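Q: What does the assembly look like in three dimensions?
Context provided by user:
Components: two
Sequences:
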Amino acid sequence: MWRLMILCLALALPAKAQDLVLGLSESEVAITTTFDGSDILVFGAIKHESIEGAQADLDIIVTVEGPKQPVTVYQKARRLGIWVNAAEVEVDEAPSFYAISTTRPIWDILSATDDQRNQITLSRAIRSVGAPETVQDPAAFTAALMRIRQNEGLYQLREGNATLIDNTLFNTEVSLPANLVEGAYKVSVYLTQDKAVISSFSSSIDVRKAGLERLLYNLAHDQPYLYGIVALAIAIAAGWGASAVFRLFQS
Amino acid sequence: MQIYLPIAEVSVNAFLLLGLGGIVGILSGMFGVGGGFLMTPLLFFIGIPPAVAVATEANQIVASSFSGVLAHLRRKSVDLRMGTVLLIGGLVGAGMGVVLFNYLKSLGQVDLLVKLCYVVFLGVIGSLMFVESLNAIRRTKRAGAPPKRKNHTWIHALPFKMKFRVSGLYISVIPPLIVGVTVGVLAAIMGVGGGFIMVPAMIYLLGMPTKVVVGTSLFQIIFVTAFTTMLHAVTNQTVDMVLAVLLLVGGVIGAQIGTRIGAKMKAEQLRILLAIMVLAVCGKLALDLLIMPSELYSIGTGGGH
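A: Here is the predicted structure of the complete assembly.
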């Protein structure tokens, strides 16, 4: 038994001996007034410890995950002839953004077990515990959440979008949409061989509001009274200004 | 040109917002409605979160109503005395409305109630106004001069009479106060200035001349929406200044144009157009409730956000 374990370890070691290095074209994304989305280049290299490793059949999966938030998914149903929100499921943690780029179709390079262990695919990233017992089909709610956010470009699965050159250099491009939530975006790279993850590495991109956006957001939260008064002052001034300008034109 | 909105946290086309503001501003100047019942659904449609849309809309209405009132003041078509009486009632009503709204919220399904409120009120007011103004137009065509309705009703028998010179009325302050309170309650629940309820109420219940009604309604709306803006800014931080500025630049210009168009039109035509618009919005909302939506599910950012 003991020997068997050592043997297993010995066999497993060479496969583990591949290191990943990861680079990002930007480590920070500033949301300014004219922010219209941003393309991030994720690139890196694989350090091989042995010749066999360099000749193996390797694949790359890159994920970018936005800050997690709790969301509520509502389902409409017909009651007394009108469509109303009849059921709701609270999803405890759903990433505000999730993009997956792979070198090949994902289930050709990743097994379900390794997906579960590393939490790579979208359904693993969304955590929903305890749907109310009155809800018959909680899975449909999570599916709807994924479908809606996919249509909004917030959840992306781009198979074949990543390239791996000579089993050593890899790169992929992830496009961040304009409707981003602030926070740390986690970038992870997984190296797979025979559908198993043999190495991984993570880094992060900081997405922050900047300039006027930052100023207004802070003012709204730190000094709500002042913010409200400024907003009203602008409204009154604009109303008066337009009236004055029009009178000038008429006389 | 895309602009990122700091509070709404979405990126939208600046010219689209300027245009929307302009159109709603024109309607506001013409009819004396704030335009919230029109603008709020439009903002939902272009992807602004509902809470931000409602709050920011209130801020924009302050600007376009103020612009409109200045134009009406110059024309001497604002009954300041009547406006103040309505406003007092309105603020009392708004306070009651907020309490009622929170109570309904604790019962659940408040969204549905708001929608039903919209459909019922828009439908009833729109149809009544449509039929009435159609009759008025027919009458003027047939008889040349419209018969003036100067019938004494129970309203004239009430105490606390007051002279409203601009409106040419000598009536008790009780009916305007009741109208103000009712509109205030509804405005707080439905999240609008209440112009589309106030305008018909002033014409049909109080018997004010249509030309004075528009300016007086705008005068009253300024204060109600300013109050709402402050409330939202302080309690929810959902007023988006960038969005408001884009909307109100279009809005104030539109309001000036609208006031001038309104002055050139006959009262009946003005009323029938407002009726058609109210009915159109009502129809759209009713269809949303009756027709099976293409996406049965919707997402709300839940939890402590």
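Follow-up: The two ends of chain A are 101 Å apart (CA to CA).
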